[in-house]
Amino acid sequence: MSDTQNPRFDLIGQPHPARLxxxxxxSGPSHxxxxxxxxxxxxxxxxxxxxxxxxxxxxxxxxxPGCVKAARGLHPDIVTIEPAxxxxxxxxxxxxxxxxxxxxxxxxxxxxxxxxxxxxxxxxANAFLKSLEEPPPFVYFLLVASRPDRVLPTIASRCQLVRFxxxxxxxxxxxxxxxxxxxxxxxxxxxxxxxxxxxxxxxLLLDAELAARRERYLSIAATLCRGxxxxxxxxxxxxxxxxxxxxxxxxxxAEESVPDGFEAAPSKTRKQEAHRRAxxxxxxxxxxxxxxxxxxxxxxxxxxxxxxxxxxxxDYENELEDLALPSRIDSYRQALAAVENARRKLGYxxxxxxxxxxxxxELMEVL
Length: 367
Ligand SMILES: [Zn+2]
Known about the structure:
The protein is α/β, with parallel strands linked by helices. The protein has 15 helices and 5 strands. The protein has a 5-stranded parallel beta sheet, with helices on one face. α4 runs parallel beside α5 and α14 runs antiparallel to α15. The site of zinc ion has 7 residues, from α3.
């Protein structure tokens, strides 16, 4: 059977990386790859599948016990490194270095997947270089980065680049409809709202809690447009802050699994890491909430301008048509600017509650 009829890698809308990885398996893979491209387009999934193929005697048959374990994230020869909070700590890299020469547990290779490789600090990156320069013949590194510009050049230059592109809108919508069993309207809305991030669009459609939070954030924006806010700016800010805190607490409380051959971190370090994880998750939720608010004001703007074909929240088309007034285009533009401005400030070390309050005061003024 030809490759096009039976692709080894199941990558949505990424023909180039799929071909490159196929060819690598045939001709003998390199020891380090950098999977680079926009967020949520399948880089992590590709890394997992390629790791399975490197370990499997049959180049990733998909059915042997090893492939099944790999698909479940339980393969003892595949270790995934994630940033603890927003950075990959030097100790995480030292753990890799220490275990580097251990033979594979049960397969022909050992694969280290480094997610968010752009979050390697200088110290971690220097420690990592040693492993990257002369790995044992059975060791492979798969680095994943949606911001490859943040990966140190000394590291990137030792990796073979696998470039991922944006997934075409039609392909993404078709996939979402079949994978999530939703209507074309919902698939289009999710794809557009998530700006082409397939992973996020998929969780928006499958994760009922996330979908409920989106509805809540949109209804806050709609209430503002109706001029019917209660509780003032502080009340609205508090509501969004509380939602983000809950998400942060859940992330902080989640147990981190320790791969085989690695020691569990001492409890003080674990607490610090839980704290960092919680902070990062809280900030991610705020970025998401403000992104949703921004999408609403952008939609009000394009609807008022008579361009409703370009709206993002296509499942709210009727409500947008009801609310958007051509005479208020300037207000919507100012509202959008206020939200974008607040979203930028989330990146700085500023009190998050104050940013939200200031934003809502401004929104109440301009709307
Ligand atoms: Zn297999």
